Amino acid sequence: MLENKKVMITGGSRGIGRAMAIAMAQAGADVAVIYNGNKEAADKVCEEIRAMGRQAAAFKCDVGNFEEAGKTVQAVNKELGGLDVLVNNAGITKDGLIFTLKEDDFDRVIETNLKGAFNTIKHAAKIMMKNRKGTIINITSVSGMMGNPGQANYAAAKAGMIGLTKTVAKELAARGITCNAIAPGFVATEMTDKLSDEVKDSIDSVVPLKRMAQPEDIANAAVFLASDKASYITGEVLKVDGGLYI
């Protein structure tokens, strides 16, 4: 589905990002894995991709830094020989109820999760506009649609990504560029693995499909949106949440 497409995935070393990188390589893509902290994990993902016979490269980048994001986009374009698909998955959490949430924690989450997506889109769009084709996928969250206690910063950033997605879709459509978002619900990752069995059971009880998503569930949706099969879809928010937010 993605034969010879050049893909850049931020936050690509672990969890959902890793699953997307592997799935897209399996579908025929060459992948740039963008990470900020865990070089070892990013290098391991690249090794797995190269074992499939696809090209892979890891790049360290704080996407919240505009200039750094720009240099990384250019480096990816040069290394892979093009840039067809941008996936904005980089994100952090710094939870706290609104009356205890620190200003710095609010700002940092917005800077990484929302401004980081703006930064990479801003730079990647120049390449895609020149080529008159491209696909942008933003990984948002149902938290940005329904809110979530203790995550005012995270929910605000993810809601902002939805608005960003729809606006970018309208602005770039005439250049042959699509922009969509995926909104996961609860996903089984390293973060949720640390939760108690009681908390996990409570999560399962509120999800109609009675389980958390696997990272591969999100990755499968991303592969579809990155493929030519989704070439007439833009400005959409695809919920992959097991029916959590209906």
TrEMBL record:
EC numbers, comma separated: 1.1.1.100
Catalytic activity: a (3R)-hydroxyacyl-[ACP] + NADP(+) = a 3-oxoacyl-[ACP] + NADPH + H(+)
Top-rank taxon: Bacteria
Pathway: Lipid metabolism; fatty acid biosynthesis
One family name in Pfam for this protein: adh_short_C2
Gene3D superfamilies: NAD(P)-binding Rossmann-like Domain
InterPro entries listed in its UniProt record: 3oxo_ACP_reduc, KR_dom, NAD(P)-bd_dom_sf, Sc_DH/Rdtase_CS, SDR, SDR_fam
Gene Ontology molecular functions: 3-oxoacyl-[acyl-carrier-protein] reductase (NADPH) activity
All copies of domain Ketoreductase, residue ranges: 5-185
This protein's UniProt keywords: Fatty acid biosynthesis, Fatty acid metabolism, Lipid biosynthesis, Lipid metabolism, NADP, Oxidoreductase, Steroid metabolism
Enzyme class: oxidoreductase
Subunit organization: Homotetramer.
NCBIfam families: 3oxo_ACP_reduc, PRK07231.1, PRK12826.1-2
Function: Catalyzes the NADPH-dependent reduction of beta-ketoacyl-ACP substrates to beta-hydroxyacyl-ACP products, the first reductive step in the elongation cycle of fatty acid biosynthesis.
Sequence similarity: Belongs to the short-chain dehydrogenases/reductases (SDR) family.
PANTHER family in the record: 3-OXOACYL-(ACYL-CARRIER-PROTEIN) REDUCTASE (PTHR42879), 3-OXOACYL-[ACYL-CARRIER-PROTEIN] REDUCTASE FABG (PTHR42879:SF2)
Protein name from the UniProt record: 3-oxoacyl-[acyl-carrier-protein] reductase
Organism, scientific name: Gallibacter intestinalis
UniProt gene name: fabG
